[in-house]
Amino acid sequence: MFSVFWKLDWFFKKYWKRYSFAIVALIAASLIDLVPPKLVGMAIDEMQFQTFNWDRMLELLMLYGLIIILSYTISFLWDYNLFGGAAIMEKLMRSRLMHHFLRMTPTFFGKYRTGDLMARSTNDLKAISMTTGFGILTLVDSSIFMLMIIAVMGFTISWNLTIAALLPLPIMAVVMQKYGNVIHDRFTKAQHAFGEMNNEVLESIRGVRVIRAFVQEEQDEQRFQIMTSDVYQKNLEVAKIDALFEPTMKILVGLSYTVGLGYGAMLVFQNVLTIGELVSFNVYLGMLIWPMFAVGELINVMQRGNASLDRVNETLGYQADVRDPLQPSSAPSPESIVFDKVSFAYPDSAQDSLVAIDFKVEKGQTIGVVGKTGAGKTTLFKQLLREYPGMRGDLRISGIPIEQLSLEDVRSWIGYVPQEQILFSKTIRENIQFGKPEATDKEIFRVMETAQFLKDIQALPKGLDTKVGESGVTLSGGQKQRVSLARAFIKDPQILILDDALSAVDGKTEANIIGHLKKERKNKTTFIAAHRLSAVEHADLVIVLNGGKVVEKGTHQQLMEINGWYAAQFELQQLEEQEVIS
Predict the structure, then answer these.
(1) I need a labelling partner for 252 at 20 to 30 A (CA). Which of 216, 237, 261, 569 fits?
(2) Burial class, 16, CB count within 10 angstroms (exposed 0-12 / middle 13-18 / buried 19+)
(3) Domain contains 225
(4) What are the residue boundaries of the ABC transporter domain, all occurrences included (predicted)?
């Protein structure tokens, strides 16, 4: 159960001063709280023996006032430091998770779904935070504070009465341990179910247009109801165990009270105890109720925190498939890119998606990559982005194997516009500035002209300050694509990769964008993957992929002379365009 503290030792070592002060202050506050019951007993005995007077009452009231002020001040200090430490823990763990997520490869996000990662970043972190805050409180109260109360009861009143009243404690320890084991197992299942439900909600929101288009609203609601029922049932199983803690504690506390009152009254009749001592004992026994409850709360919080920490550590323990070399090489800029017999298969595939890819790119060249759907165009670009491990052959940039270059260097050279445009739920200005945070409006308008987005921005009610909504939902497919292009253009990267990034624009807009690219990127490398071959007609080198292999290679003119797939596809597209015009 307490293994959660060992797992968090890095945190407690870092903030040991804060926690040491909080624990010392908590113990001091507990010690102060032990004084009033003794004063009550003394006052009762003095009244019984008729030695109590107004001066004594004033003295006790002033002492009580001082105790209240001290208790309040010290309680504030331990509360602030202890629960402030819990907030720091949550912040640190959330930052570590975010740092981890940003460095993970697609393999990681294939294994862990978004909803589950969100659950680990919210509910699980809250449970861990409870462990480092409320968990420490219950640990101190259920151990040190309980021992202090027992010591005061034993040394100042009667050990026989104290031991008799605490006989139910061993029973409590056994029962709480059994409850704790069940809580750990059930809470882990409940958190997993919550993550799955999160996934379902995210997918439904993202795909709401498709759901409506296929009239699947009722079916989606039914699927969601099944998942919420599963989450409800699993949390109900946790709640059932939670519900057993309090009644169990009440029964055991009731037994302690029964023994304390019965045996204590007998000791009073035998003149072993005074009435004041018996009253003090019962007040202390009442104070012992919370530490006894704290034992149950401690086990509950520890097991929840342990289960959540295991889930979070499992995520943080996932090693990135692609990592920086121990001693990375450096290059000032990508002067050349060489694919030398590069082959690649995805981690879960037995078949190669790229087979012996061979070509060379000099700085300033434009490379067209074409082929049928699934030919391997995107996979080729992913080798430059180093998204997956397992590449065979040599991929060199400026003569240096890409594995020997740092990920940051390689990716800092690249501007990437993927097939599926990702826009953030911010303004158009903020989305474009993502490529260059310090970009001015003048620079933004310049790249929007290159991306053929000026007319669109003028038509929008708030111009650059128009919010694009969740994943750009307020924009059309072509608009999203051109905002993504502008975001890549403003970075002015050494290597620009357009992965079928002109598919949602018409032929005229595409021609204008290509014309601007020719002027803007004279001395920089550009890769263009496209289904419309007119987008790569101007390229210095066109590569035709089929089944992950280079089946044709050359300039537009050379490929037309070969009269292969490229030539046939180009002529077919020209005929289709003429038919549309006519």
Answers:
(1) 237
(2) exposed
(3) yes
(4) 337-572
